Amino acid sequence: MGLPRWKGGAPFFHPGSPMPECLVFRVPAQHPADVSEVMGLVASGAVDVTEIVAIFGKTEGNGCVNDFTRQLAVMALETALATALGCTAAEVGARIALVMSGGTEGGLSPHFLVLARRDSPAVPEGKALAIGTAFTQEFRAEEIGRMAQVEATAAAVGRAMAEAGLTDPADVHLVQVKCPLLTSARIAEAAARGHGVATHDTYASMGLSRGASALGIALALGEVDREHLTDSAIGTRRDLFSGRASCSAGIELMRNEIIVLGNSQGWTGPLAIAHRVMDDGIDLPAIRGVLTDLGFLEAGQLPPHESERVIALLAKAEPSHDGLIRGRRHIMNDDSDINATRHARALVGGVAAAAIGRTDLFVSGGAEHQGPDGGGPVAVIARVRD
Amino acid sequence: MGLPRWKGGAPFFHPGSPMPECLVFRVPAQHPADVSEVMGLVASGAVDVTEIVAIFGKTEGNGCVNDFTRQLAVMALETALATALGCTAAEVGARIALVMSGGTEGGLSPHFLVLARRDSPAVPEGKALAIGTAFTQEFRAEEIGRMAQVEATAAAVGRAMAEAGLTDPADVHLVQVKCPLLTSARIAEAAARGHGVATHDTYASMGLSRGASALGIALALGEVDREHLTDSAIGTRRDLFSGRASCSAGIELMRNEIIVLGNSQGWTGPLAIAHRVMDDGIDLPAIRGVLTDLGFLEAGQLPPHESERVIALLAKAEPSHDGLIRGRRHIMNDDSDINATRHARALVGGVAAAAIGRTDLFVSGGAEHQGPDGGGPVAVIARVRD
Amino acid sequence: MGLPRWKGGAPFFHPGSPMPECLVFRVPAQHPADVSEVMGLVASGAVDVTEIVAIFGKTEGNGCVNDFTRQLAVMALETALATALGCTAAEVGARIALVMSGGTEGGLSPHFLVLARRDSPAVPEGKALAIGTAFTQEFRAEEIGRMAQVEATAAAVGRAMAEAGLTDPADVHLVQVKCPLLTSARIAEAAARGHGVATHDTYASMGLSRGASALGIALALGEVDREHLTDSAIGTRRDLFSGRASCSAGIELMRNEIIVLGNSQGWTGPLAIAHRVMDDGIDLPAIRGVLTDLGFLEAGQLPPHESERVIALLAKAEPSHDGLIRGRRHIMNDDSDINATRHARALVGGVAAAAIGRTDLFVSGGAEHQGPDGGGPVAVIARVRD
Amino acid sequence: MGLPRWKGGAPFFHPGSPMPECLVFRVPAQHPADVSEVMGLVASGAVDVTEIVAIFGKTEGNGCVNDFTRQLAVMALETALATALGCTAAEVGARIALVMSGGTEGGLSPHFLVLARRDSPAVPEGKALAIGTAFTQEFRAEEIGRMAQVEATAAAVGRAMAEAGLTDPADVHLVQVKCPLLTSARIAEAAARGHGVATHDTYASMGLSRGASALGIALALGEVDREHLTDSAIGTRRDLFSGRASCSAGIELMRNEIIVLGNSQGWTGPLAIAHRVMDDGIDLPAIRGVLTDLGFLEAGQLPPHESERVIALLAKAEPSHDGLIRGRRHIMNDDSDINATRHARALVGGVAAAAIGRTDLFVSGGAEHQGPDGGGPVAVIARVRD
Prior knowledge:
homotetramer; four-stranded mixed β-sheet; 9 helices; 28% helix; hydrolase (chains A, B, C, D)
């Protein structure tokens, strides 16, 4: 076959014996509640509904406080999947992690990523994409955005790695976390028990929860020293971060839900994942580096047939706090008409589309402790074998 | 010297004899009225104020109807330049073309481009950046957005080319036009004389005026057939366009002001210009093509020392009318919170920054008949010799 | 009883015999999918779910193209009501008219209005609130925004009046219409049959559909002469309007759904409705006039106990096309950051809240042919008897 | 004369002897730089340019961080007034307080208020509008937003009252303050001197500076106890406020500039001022109370001839922090598309226009310690005599 050989280890399983395979499908959405293409995958037999582990959705809201497109997409997915699974809508959420990210600024195109796991015949090809999931216990309000959340997340990342058969942190390329936030009711309940919380600003609690989760990932993957981590470091020590974390906060849960993606000898299939850290919002070389890791050797924009091999690009975007990109002023933080995270997603979306030649890319905002200030992790899942 | 040799013809002037040189300076602005760095060029002697031909400004407003940052920048420039020139603020505008473009979405950085002309010793290097300006007569309201504006613009482009010593349309790489718009008062005045106007929607008149100006450029440069041009084609025939036009409409004038930039054997200096047409908002190869034309041979993002050789990148951005980029849905046209042109500038700004490695790029919106639907011209002025 | 006597005719039914009663409940929503208080009315027995005729929802989206809060509210209502009714979600829409209006700018408070009909003992009190519904046939795409829609709407208003027992147009105070819009697919389907449509701009089709529906209401109620109505008058003749129309366009239907509210001798219960036409966005006297019609005799803001007697205020808001309110410039039409209809709702919401002393008011935008340019109908449903 | 008698004391000056008179003119602006009507007052002789004490401008920007309409209006005013005064633009600001407030949401109409002082013949009419101005010393960065600013403001209010001949705080109805803010450079300069500042968030410093200024006014007018005022109370103790303060922060100054408006026996002329405190954003009765104080006895919206007697209405608007208005949820604080202060101005503008019957009203945002949470002071200047 004509695909460039992807760098990966040698096989150690017998060809033909059953092995887990992680499948990833990318389908468009005409509006936030348009799950027709997701369900089309089930209807066509491309995936069995019971194989679905997670669905990531890029929806066209503002990605901020009053972005109801996330909730709308979840409701549509739960309704449709409940029918297919023969369960209630509420039970869908317990089986399948639904991670919605609002904001398709610039040219970004709304879409869903469907991640599934099945047993497949092993092939002698080396490492393949692996997926593992785990949950923390439910947090009490006073734990959110604090070390308790960091440590519980780190432990859960370890369990998810084990489930995925990933033993070397270097094989982990993306850890997606869905984490809780504080509400007025939750703060009041903690106060009634005599406990204070990390912040009384419910919006700020989203950032602290994402940040604590990212630091938990960094701890699990050995990216930060345990000794530097304290409650006060969360949200302030921008030099401490994970290069593989992608965290989003949601009101509908009180625990952290963790999805680890990496490459493993114990998995089969044509897909693999790689990542790099963008130093700033225009770090095209970082994206090119990920592509090179995956065997894309062209220097410029991927031509169409190569672009199709990229199943998913996932990147975090955030405005730099100093108001500069490589010494030049940006206006994101001073724009009272368009939220700064919206500018950042548009920018990173443009840079990523320049590399990939496509716009259905999963660029999300809110990158506390997820990459350096103004930058962020970027991961690519690609088909590296036929 | 170590610069790659730029493709250009042989010299035909005697070395050392005086020749016109077009200088271009790029300076940052801390806010729309911050002209300190522009005036710093004068104060430092980098340019004599009497040499300045035009100033292009990228300001941080919304680039739409109620963008007052353009007016603020013009007022600040006129006040400062009037002092330096010893004339009134009103007289500045008659001497120097001030072209402000609002909108620095995504990561774009507010800045000014100062274009000047001086006599310099000729050097035996081939073609160099050339500049020429011309004006049409003042239009009557009923001529705006119609064939009268197309034809007057075409004729003025010819005069500006002649001033720049450009005889071959292939040597023209950018034609910047500042054109008028309709106001209620102008419409009423035309009606009083018994004439109807192209549109009663004053906002729409901006697009028609830009479109007619662009078609005038296309006509002058031989990009469209005269026979296809009619009043009704303006604003509707998206297949007719100039690949070198950049037009902006302003309320403060009733004529078209034309600035032609090209490469000429009759000019000297280290700068040259090239252009391509972006087919869509993510057409990185088009930008790479321009860079290749100018001797930038690297395939990826320009490294810092090469990036500094790029004096200016000027691109037009616009959402495609079919709501798609390479078959994938974008949401620009359906977003009632952020104007579609703002999304488009953010996107093209990201793609251009990916190529150049810098964010102070002149990406502007409103690309009627300036490149194909959803795409637009991109021109780069670079230092191609020491 | 201490309530002021409401102006109404004498009873003509025997006291105690069963009569229809129209009930209206107003409940708050914490977010667009929060239907807990709606379903609480059912759970508490305040209303039987089978009695519900219509639900109007004021949701917190932008009220423009990409306002998905309407769809989210509908999905939540359909899911919850389907369970209560023992039917499918799709069947709910066929039984209960769900009319969502996005936009709670300024101080407006998101809420639902639940309208129900039941048989109650007649009381000798004169006219009471009456409700009637009717549907047109499904429209073909080429009929939308044209006279066919006007005439079908007029006929359906007549049927809805008959159902409500309203024979005198003077007794009709509000006609709410939900109407279809054009999509690219619908336009293409019409073209395939050889028919052109009123507009190819799908957003503009919403305005034309609302406008044609409003003119249909005006025709039915004798507010305009049939001879003035033509296809070309729709959307252009701003002097032609209904003072009792409230129309909203939605993608989910192809027919007009009509709800007529008036006062009738044939109905019982403590509620009544009145309306006036606001001449502009600050026409407090019009609102005061409605209140006077309903027996609220205080001149200033209603005190709390009187405010509670106002069950619902429904008003249409729209910016004037000349950019003026009583000769003073407003900036709604020139604001490229905030859609003009959002400004208009905020303004009318402030004026209405000044009168009523509450903010959960149903102010909606898009008032083509619904009241004069810059103004709009305002109707109040109040408890006028114990 | 036919005007209602305004409540005011008996005259104690001899009729005909010269007395100071405070004149107030309200003129419209077609755009932020349109000062033609302001200069028209000078050209017509309505006011002598040397009599002008202050100009308040309501401009059509977003009223937030990147609102450059304020700077544009100031630049236009300074340029025009410099010519009229025969001084430099910089000197204009030292002579005339230019207070620009951005944001004309809803129906608010951009306009200028020109306040002037001249000597006029005394008339035996009782108290008339009086104006006094004063400045604090220049603050050091570490004083901004702290007790030093509170105390210096209180002292300056006393001096301004003395200049206006106002001895009883009850005669003071509005204190407008323009105050400085922190910038990165100012923070660094303080740090270099070994001093910390109240906040490192430059945007937050605007609120603290306004809040400290308002508390200084409250202290001077006896509205708060000195013992409750501490650095930590500034920005947090929402129960401490002035009912007569209106503060705006600007980058162009380092001192507080104070303008006191009240009613005095020592002044003459047809104008007077009154104020009340709006308890929330829909407190129409408070506005009605102000009007009653000034002799407007109608209960509903002022009819046109009475509306014209209202020269200026000045109100502060702010969203309540608990997200409620009279127990009903508003969405201002959760809207990531429109800044909360923009919603608040639109709302209060609607309520005020309902009362006055006009839209050129001076509603401004940022009401820290200026009235209660969610409410704010409202003052009216009216012609109470012929």
